[in-house]
Amino acid sequence: MQNVKFKITFLFLSVLFLAGCAQNVDLRKQAKEEKAQEQKSISSMQSAVDLRSENKPAPENNINDNKPIKILFIGDMMFDRHIREAVGKYGSGDYNYALESLKEKLSEYDLVVGNLEGPITENKSISVNTKIGESKNFVFTFDPAVAKTLAENNIKLINLGNNHILNQGAKGVEQTKKYLDEAGVEYFGNIGDLETKFPSREKEIEGMRIEFVSYNYSVTDSIEAAIEDIKSAKEQSDIVIVCPHWGTEYKTGDPGEAVRALAYRFIDAGADAIIGTHPHVVQNSEEYNSKKIYYSLGNFVFDQYFQKETMEGLGVEVTINPDRTMEFGELKFEMTKRGQTKLK
């Protein structure tokens, strides 16, 4: 009897043991399946994240993702006197005649910047048919059609800060602004004590903020004003380019110690480049503190045919890279006695 009880107990314990083993096998199998499912879920989530990353658009206004900016700077433009006569005689009154051989070249740039050496008004010219040295020979007004010509040739930013912008007085400046606004041409420049001041202009191209600052030697106390404008522009812009109207007319080569010293002050104040006008001839260029200075680009549209140097001009190609580094190239222009400007 006791032996029978022992066998029954042993049999019962064996059954429990086998059941436990089976349960352990099931638990291990379940754990393995759960682990595999978890890994599968992780892989799926990672794939989804990777897919979203691939399809995610680039952040807006990320300068480093943008292309280089190409700007062309040109010299003094004067559309009165012999240029006005030549346009009427050879160009049937269309001022595009003066730039017709350059139209395609000018269209290659993101922006073309030049100095407009006088106002655009409805007033009748008094400089036509005058002789060099006569007082009226230096008093300009440009036909209203000039504004549209500038726009059609991609000259979309002009400097008005020069010694001829007031040739027709304050009303002449107001008319100039009106015609430029209508044509879609922007402008800047220190023009003196008028109610509306626009010594600088900021342009945003490819996410890059570029400030163009004027200095006009013919305006009293304009040096300190320009320095303050440069400092202010430096705080809010990526690149600051100063366009001074300065120097000695018809002086080729070295601009002189005073002009050089002023250029250095502008760079010390924050200018990234300086590109000057006014002497009507091309002058030297140099670097100061790794910043480029072009002292004078000479003429671009002008009728000064009395010497070879005034019939030549320089164009400066400025490439601004996404990392704000700048590269410079040069074009050479020549002005013909038929009132046209061509590549040399």
Can you summarize this structure?
This protein has helices at residues 2-55, 81-90, 103-106, 145-152, 169-183, 222-236, 257-269, and strands spanning 69-77, 111-116, 157-159, 186-188, 200-205, 208-216, 239-245, 273-275, 285-288, 291-294, 299-301, 312-320, 326-335, 341-343.
Walk me through this protein's architecture:
By secondary structure, this protein is α/β, with parallel strands linked by helices. It has 2 domains: 1-56; 65-343, 4-Layer Sandwich (Purple Acid Phosphatase, chain A, domain 2), CATH 3.60.21. Helices cover 35% and strands 23% of the residues. It has 7 helices and 14 strands. It has helices at 2-55, 81-90, 103-106, 145-152, 169-183, 222-236, 257-269; strands spanning 69-77, 111-116, 157-159, 186-188, 200-205, 208-216, 239-245, 273-275, 285-288, 291-294, 299-301, 312-320, 326-335, 341-343. The strands form 2 sheets. Strands 1, 2, 3, 4, 11, 12, 13 and 14 form an 8-stranded mixed beta sheet that branches. Strand 7 (239-245), helix 7 and strand 8 (273-275) form a beta-alpha-beta unit. Helix 4 packs across helix 5 and helix 6 (222-236) runs parallel beside helix 7.
